[in-house]
Amino acid sequence: MTAGHDTGKWLLGLMSGTSMDGIDAALIRSDGERVLECGESFFRPYSLPERERIEGCLLQKDRSLEAVRALEEEQTLWHVEAVEQLMQKAGLSASDIALIGFHGQTLWHNPADRETLQIGDGALLASRTGIAVVNDFRAADVARGGEGAPFAPAYHAALARSAGGGQETVAFLNIGGVSNVTLVRGELDDRMLAFDLGPGNALMDDWARAWTGQACDLDGEMAARGVVAQEVLSEALEHPFFRKSFPKSLDRNDFSLEFFASRIERSEDVMATLAAFTVKAIGAGEALLPEKPAKWFVTGGGRHNPVLMKTLSEELSGEVLPVEARGWNGDVLEAQAFAYLALRSRLGLPLSWPGTTAVPEACRGGVLHQPA
User: Fold this and answer.
1) b/e for 164-176, b at 16 or more Cβ within 10 A?
2) Sequence-separated (6 or more) residues with CB below 8 Å from residue 231
3) 238 exposure class (CB count in 10 Å sphere: 0-12, 13-18, 19+)
4) Poorest-confidence range of 96-105, 138-147, 178-187?
5) DSSP label of 363
6) How confident is the model at residue 59, as a pLDDT?
7) Which pLDDT belongs to residue 61?
């Protein structure tokens, strides 16, 4: 199964999520089934002008073909910088790295119409780094009728297997721009369940930037000073998404900040209500699960918010823990996931399953670009 892959070489993953804060780059070693070692990582933050360039397309301000192509080239070169910085930090050269998994930046995601777009020029990245690149992970799944998200479950299962927890039912809860869950049940990938749950940090981050100029509600301080507007929260939870069965996925823009801002007077109360909305959406997702997990391992930026973590512990059954409790790094888990998925793509192994994206059958994906 692993013929042609030297497990002594590193795999490098790159992730730029819907939070639009920057690029995570991370190194792992794997055989395509288990995680053998986690290496160095690096974060390249976006400058304000860079973030505004992405927002111009992502938030539908300018989605002309010319604008998207220009952004794709710029964004790829930012990823080249992240690769170079990580290699320098780790003391590695291109010959030490077997493959780069390049997620790119999601600009829109509409699986109902079989559309998804993650910009990122894999050929350009391969040419500039001298390393083979796999990108365009989601398109094959969406083209076959899958949701195209979430896409990290295969890696979550690999982590659980590698930690010797294959017989225990556990959940990985990712709170990024949106939140999603992976339920890992035993050793078999086709027994995994995964789906998007609702808003993660995106609405809270947007509100924090608008009112404090900070990238997020640091330590949950703004939410802690506020009072939840229960009527508004109840109305928000009537959104049709929460009535859909899983698997299901979201676009960052499926929930509106204006919905809350127009109904709640105090800015702190808006933040408190947004935090409660994230938690209640996760709780609604747990109610759909066929098995209650013994543990919830929380990854993504949301695990740094004490208000979220405290209320999640009250909302969910099972123990709620940051992934660091198992020795994993929640800041780079998704970047590591795309390093792992790149190898699986190269080995011809599935990246998604009916239980993770509603694709009709186990689905391969990804596009390989060799350096010139």
Assistant:
1) ebeeebbbbbbbb
2) none
3) exposed
4) 178-187
5) B
6) 62
7) 54
- Enumerate helices (H) and strands (E) in the chain, giving the number of each: 13, 12
Q: Which residue has the tokens 């497990």?
A: 7
234 CB contacts (<8 Å, ≥6 apart)? none
Of 355, 352, 354, 372, the C-alpha closest to 363 is 352
Residues forming a β-bridge with 182: 172, 194
Cis peptide before 290 (omega within 30 of 0): no
Return the closest-CA partner of residue 247 out of 331, 336, 146, 100: 146
61 contacts 71 by C-beta, under 8 angstroms = no
- Among 113, 120, 24, which Cα is nearest to 68's? 120
**Coil/strand/helix, residue 16:** strand
- 3-state SS, residue 346: helix
- Ramachandran region of residue 146, left (φ > 0), alpha (ψ -120 to 50) or beta? beta
Q: Which two tokens stand for residue 6?
A: 């030297």
d(CA 199, CA 254): 9
Provide the 8-state DSSP code for 96: G
For 181, phi then psi, to 5°, come to: -130, 145
CA–CA distance, 15 with 337 (Å, rounded to integer): 9
Q: How far apart are CA 177 and CA 191, in angstroms?
A: 26
Query: pLDDT grade, residue 1 (50/70/90)?
Result: very low
Q: Residue 253 has what DSSP assignment? A: G
Q: List, in sequence order, every residue forming a beta bridge with 295; answer none if it has no partner.
A: 170, 319
Tokens of 114: 């079989």
Residue 340 near residue 28, CB atoms below 8 Å: yes
Average pLDDT over residues 351-365: 95
Phi, psi of 172 (to 5 degrees): -100, 120
Q: Which neighbouring-strand residues pair with 101?
A: 13, 134
Encoded tokens for 102: 């390049």
